[in-house]
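This entry is listed as follows:

___
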Amino acid sequence: MWNRLAKAISQIQNRNISALSYEEHYRYAYNLVLYQQGDMLYNGVRKQIEQHLNKLCVERIVPAFPPGGATAVSAGILLPDFKQVVPNSSSSTSPSSKGKQKAGGPATAANDDGGASSHIANSNLGMTATQGGDRADAVARTQAGERLMKAIRDAWLDHRDCMSKLSDVLKYVDRVHVPNTSNPTIWILGLELFRDSVVRSSKYPIQIHLYSTLLTHIQIEREGSVISRSLVKSNVDMLGDLTHPKPGLPSSQQPTVYAHDFEPAFLATSAAFYKAEAERLLDTSDAARYLAHVEKRLQEETGRVSVYLKPETQTPLRALLEKQFLSSHLGTILDMPGSGLVTMLDEDRRDDLGRLYRLFNRVSEGPQALRLGLKAYITSKGKLINDSVNAPTSSKSLDAAAPADGPSASNEAPNADGDAPALSSKERGKGRAREGASTGEASTPQATMALRWVEEVLDFKFKFDSIFSTSLQSDKGCESSINEAFESFVNSNPRAPEFISLFIDENLKKGLKGKTEEEVDDVLNKTISVFRFLHEKDVFERYYKQHLAKRLLQGRSVSDDAERGMMAKLKVECGHGYVQKLQGMLNDMKVSEDAMNEFTRSLKNSNRPMPFDISVNVLTSTYWPISAQAQPCTMAPSMVEARRRFEGFYQSKHSGRILTWHPNLGNADVRVTFKSRKHELNVSTYALIVLLLFEDIAEGETLAYDDIAANTGIPEADLQRTLQSLACAKYKILVKEPKGREIAKTDKFLFNSGFTCPLARIKIAQVAARVENAGERKETTEKVEEERKNQIEACIVRVMKDRKTMTHNDLVNEVVRQLASRFQPNLSLVKKRIESLLDREYLERAEARNVYNYLA
């Protein structure tokens, strides 16, 4: 029976099965097992399969070996555990490994999956179609490798087909004999025999040539040539179907030959190849091309795995690529001169930045490196922006007095707390027009600097907002780094609060040429994005109140709606308390307008009409940044009478209120007769008082500086600026003797009756005051610090009144949190204020350490 069965197995292996009876041979196997001859049958089948596989090796596979392969045993790939795989020695050296090793010498690389190390001879695996020999030789070697893969594939498919039929004949053996003897089934036996007799044959170096061929073909494809992917896939699938025996593991968990033998060698050669390629590209290419190549390689390897490698190779292969191309060179890529992150940002290369972001996000260290790079870039560019406005030349140009539409916005409106109405007529002339936000047409040199700084910051911020939403895919980590960098460089400019307030002031003034209200609102919305970065929002509030006061009192605000819209934006950022006084200023202007309408009606109903129109703004002392002390000034009798009549009207409506007049904040329209014609002049109230002195003197008569000062009582600094605007500016209403730009106490002044001008209405711009010098700025800072002390104490009391008992750290943290919307309180200052409140018995120390109690 065995002889007949053995003959049938031979017929199956020789594909001559037409005359075989499966039922008959199934009975032979059944009887042999039944009569206790199962071992003889099982061993006989094993021996016959081995003989057939040896025959396949001799007849099909060995003749397909690439020529010259047997001479390359000295250098090659040391595979895990037991075998040496030597690639074709006739293959040429890879360009990526050229110069990295001695000829014929092995290179080494760690096995990334934690298994045994693999030693790779790059000199044998770097074959290309165009290097190390002519193209015909390369094609011949490729074809020789394909012959070997085809021979192994055909032998594998033939063996599988035979084993499938043989398993059908020996089903009874699998069902009865195999379970009793713990032997593998006939099918598994066939796989193991193919593994040991063919793939891992001890007689023929099949494994050497097979792995060398597979790895070489993969590298050939990496270098741009075409290979037979179907042949590679069929051989890889074969390795995936064969298992590597691991004692103690169930059959379902046994590793495959692919995972145990081939994958480590594949990963090691890949690591060596890509490491050399990365170093070569970094030396010869730029960052953009390098990243594009990396992205292409990642896509290629993903496709390679999906087509002919095993899915489990995807993860270690991707990690290998990311390590060799990215993790090891993050700093080099970012800092590449002329093409790195700085160049990409400078030239706004969105696609390259997007690719950089995507690739850096693939490695663990990448996001942090990118964020640090962005932060360093913003910090350096921000320093340049700050330096451009803080340079000595810029400061020097602002120290000089210059003619302007009105007083300097930084220090002309004094700080104050008292009741102060101001006498002013409504401005009817057009303010200086400004094209868009051009820095060259600002109202003062200081505003010019502020406009330039804020516009540069806004442009820089807008650029990064766009990059953030496109290239950086709105990444929260990048957003945090960008905001931190902007916050740092904005606050490193000590004049940032003043500049932002001046920028808003310029955009909320009347007469902006080429800007609609919608465009102004858009600019202000962008400005708020910079305002958010400010730490010293209380300093901004101080300047904003001064600038708002000037806009309102000089009638230069574009509209109440625009002002209230800006306040609404500030309210969203800082809360209702931040804008309460600002809103009070707007309300005062509205109430003053209603009061003036009523005053005008009362004048019409009286029998004593006014010789001229008057407009008075009554201001609440606690809202406006104006000194409570009245400015000294001797007005003309007609002006004094107008004041007296308004005071009488106001007291009849509001008894008990005290009015303090501030002529330094007013302006007037006056009709002046010259020899040629009459002109209507728009001047400051001080200028009007000075001009009225010349009304009662003879033509050609002069007034000395001392006489003017004695008759007007105007403070010296204001008087000098007033005379300078009348006698030394573009429109010379007065003639100064001697001539010159500066006003001296020995000067004399003459009314310029021969003045000519084609304009009927002329605005005499008040010469701007000098900007704050170091001493004045220090004084302003001290006042801010004093206000902060009061705010910190009020916050401490408010918190303790609510909590009753708190630890020191909790109290400090809560105070810092609540005050953050106005300024960043210094921790030592908070501690000093707590000590002060303890001394004044607002708080007391509890028995527990570092705990405070509130004292009602």
In short: The CA atoms of residues 432 and 509 lie 9 Å apart.
